[in-house]
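fold-stage: in
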Amino acid sequence: MFPKTHLTIAAGATVLVAATVLMSPSSNVEAKRMSYSLDLEQGSVSAPAKGPASAGDPESAEVATDDATSGAPASAEGQTEATVAKTPPKPALDWQTFDIKSGDTLSSLFKAAGFNDGIMLSVIHGEGDADKLQRLYAGETIRFASDDQGKLAAVELQRNRLKSLKVSRTDDGFKGEVLTREPEARPMFASGVIDDSLYASARAAGLNDKLTMELTDIFGWDIDFVYDVRKGDRFEVVYQDLYLDGEKLGTGKILSARFINRGDERLALLYTDDSGNSDYFTPDGKSMRKAILRTPIDARVSSPFNLQRRHPVLGVVRPHEGTDYAAAPGTPIKAAGSGRIISAGRKGGYGRAVVLQHGDGITTLYAHMSRIARGMKAGSRVKQGQTIGYVGSSGLATGPHLHYEYRVNGRPVNSRTVKLPDAKPVPSSEMAQFRKIADQRLAQFNVFEGREQQLAMAEEE
């Protein structure tokens, strides 16, 4: 039926397959079994191409590796797998680090790293944030990375522990990216009773100067911390401690705060609206801020509002239609509220003065400045808290101080006692979201307060 040569080939193939089975281990026979195809027409025996090993089949993976290294014929696909498995890792970059000192320039730093100005220009003219590499400050750190051919691969500028700028080589040139790390915020609690001063009591409670200033800013719209605070007043604060890699960096924002002044309790909660603006509100959504600051400067009152006061220079009874605040020359003066500048310049006995127009018929005047801040001119708009000038003694003044006037429809009013207009409350469209955040803040506050009371009771026992 078959030619003698075909029968000879078939017999040889049968012997080869039988020998292979006998020489293979008895276990895992299915996983390591080798199959051969018999071509009687061509008179040949060949091993078929193997399919890719399953990622979940380690035995199959082992067979593929053994076959590739044993010298046995391997398919093109088998060669690809072996090549991928043996691809060497990319060579590590060689980094050079420089601490930026006063007088260093980007050009001098590139040259110190072994790169010329042409490479520097290619970097700073790259895409993204690459041009920001030109702004260097003493105390920062810059690193240059070279590849195995000595070409510049990347530049990293470490501005601080949280922010850095990385410029990397790509196929299309250099591209820069600002990288920002977010510290871990851990809530903390502090409380105290005022004995001598707020600052001394706050420090004793563990609050730093930054948090104490923030506390006074939150409640400063209603409380004059120079004159209104009394011994026995209390404060409680939930704030953030910031950590990076397990190490404390500093403090973050105050999350909630309570201040009891003369028995009158005020509670403030931090809320960030849909636009990303953060401010402090009462639990019912009213702003802690006012449309007008109570005082535009942190200083003591040297002469109060008095419509029957005798003028210290002229020696005659002349109404003192404002409040004087004694302060060192050059102390910044803040705009009490947002508004438009009516006048800025010399104004008779007021000396150098700025007058602002606010809403609801309210105007404020700031006099006796040593100089007016740059950009302050009639018609310009200013924001609340913006510096508009600096304390001086220009005009009819016996010494450096700020003379501050508050008028409603042209009528002078005592700025320290007038009821100030409120800032905008939480929008009605965000009240549901605000209530959710407010409940969380209050619950957190109550937990901390409860722990504090338990510790106090334990100490007393």
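fold-stage: in (second)
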Amino acid sequence: MAKITFIAFDGTEYVVDAQNGSSVMQSAIDNAVPGIDADCGGQCSCATCHVIVDDAWFGVVGKPGDREEEMLDLNPEREPNSRLSCQVPVRDELDGLVVRLPEFQM
């Protein structure tokens, strides 16, 4: 289990307990974190679960795969440390993870 902090564009923090084996996206959905719509249900085909990984955590989370890169490239608020939360599996090493939600998702 990992504790993940989602920070909305307005600074509101949502701290959730995430189950290993789930995704960061599913953890947000299960805990009613606003701004994670997940329109495609976690299939990496819509980018409505876009998060910006805190710089200190990007090395632990890792870089996006090719398909994820394609989806992120369509996103106007993409940053170098952007990820689709549906593509980030929860694991013990992510305990304390901090991600920010882009403005357009709020």
